[in-house]
UniProtKB/TrEMBL annotation:
<dbReference type="GO" id="GO:0032259">
    <property type="term" value="P:methylation"/>
</dbReference>
<dbReference type="InterPro" id="IPR029063">
    <property type="entry name" value="SAM-dependent_MTases_sf"/>
</dbReference>
<keyword id="KW-0489">Methyltransferase</keyword>
<keyword id="KW-0808">Transferase</keyword>
<feature type="domain" description="Methyltransferase">
    <location>
        <begin position="77"/>
        <end position="169"/>
    </location>
</feature>
<keyword id="KW-0949">S-adenosyl-L-methionine</keyword>
<protein>
    <submittedName>
        <fullName>Class I SAM-dependent methyltransferase</fullName>
    </submittedName>
</protein>
<dbReference type="InterPro" id="IPR041698">
    <property type="entry name" value="Methyltransf_25"/>
</dbReference>
<dbReference type="GO" id="GO:0008168">
    <property type="term" value="F:methyltransferase activity"/>
</dbReference>
<dbReference type="Pfam" id="PF13649">
    <property type="entry name" value="Methyltransf_25"/>
</dbReference>
């Protein structure tokens, strides 16, 4: 894919600036800069580079084909929920939706945007999740969180997401895609399909892999199931 077709952050944008300062500070985790981006945005979502005020374009078509998921007692987990649009879309169709993000400001913003929400929003770190998330969710939904972390954290993030899926459960993943030999210099760090194959080492089977081009950005949608 030509380099100019890939979504790149403008170096002047806050996301890049915060990332540069966060990775240079030895006592911070690489994720702390997300909190800084949300805080600096105030209440203006147009200052959060990834916020769209609507759900991921591929989510609704996928949900339309999965009416059976609405059954009682099923539990859904939304990883790195950001400002909550996808979590809300899921909660309109499915019972018992939990959504987490590492940023306390993002979670407070979700509660402010959706005061009557049925979503259980909570602050949590994907790389240090509560024990009761383990094997607990019939549907786990991950969009754009793994790629928002530096590549040395991807294996841990993949293992943590896979661990949340209950036996017989589904993982729905969306990310920006690249070829394995194509370099990636994030944020975001686009994911190669070979990297996603790590999920297969954590008890998941790939049941569907789709590739889409949306607004000039290559995206993967992958559905996995746990035996
Ligand atoms: C690119 S945004 C995507 C947000 C949302 N999923 C979407 O599709 O719009 C990445 C999100 O992951 C969150 N995040 C980053 N590192 C995280 C971690 N270790 N644990 C939980 N959330 C994290 C960020 O705060 C941010 O909200």
């Amino acid at each position: 894919m030509p380099k100019e077709k890939r979504m790149k952050m403008n170096p002047e944008e806050p996301i890049q600036r915060h990332f540069n300062s966060a990775v240079c500070r030895p006592f911070d985790t690489p994720s702390t800069w997300y909190e800084a981006v949300y805080r600096e945005a105030g209440n203006e979502s147009n200052k959060v580079p990834w916020a769209r005020q609507t759900n991921q374009p591929l989510l609704l078509p996928w949900l339309e084909l999965r009416q059976e998921l609405a059954a009682e007692n099923r539990r859904t987990l939304v990883v790195g929920c950001g400002l909550g649009d996808d979590a809300e879309t899921l909660a309109h169709r499915l019972p018992h939706v939990t959504a987490f993000d590492i940023s306390p400001r993002a979670i407070a913003w979700c509660r402010q945007r959706f005061p009557a929400s049925r979503v259980a929003y909570q602050v949590a770190d994907l790389l240090d999740l509560p024990e009761d998330f383990r094997q607990a969710f019939d549907l786990v939904y991950e969009a754009l969180t793994i790629q928002s972390l530096p590549p040395n954290l991807h294996a841990g993030a993949i293992a943590a997401i896979a661990d949340c899926v209950a036996p017989g459960g589904i993982l729905l993943l969306m990310c920006y895609g690249r070829d394995p030999e194509e370099p990636t210099d994030g944020p975001p760090w686009h994911l190669a399909r070979s990297e996603l194959d790590l999920f297969l080492q954590h008890g998941l089977q790939e049941v569907c892999f789709q590739e889409h081009m949306i607004a000039g950005v290559r995206r993967f949608l992958v559905e996995y199931r746990k035996a």
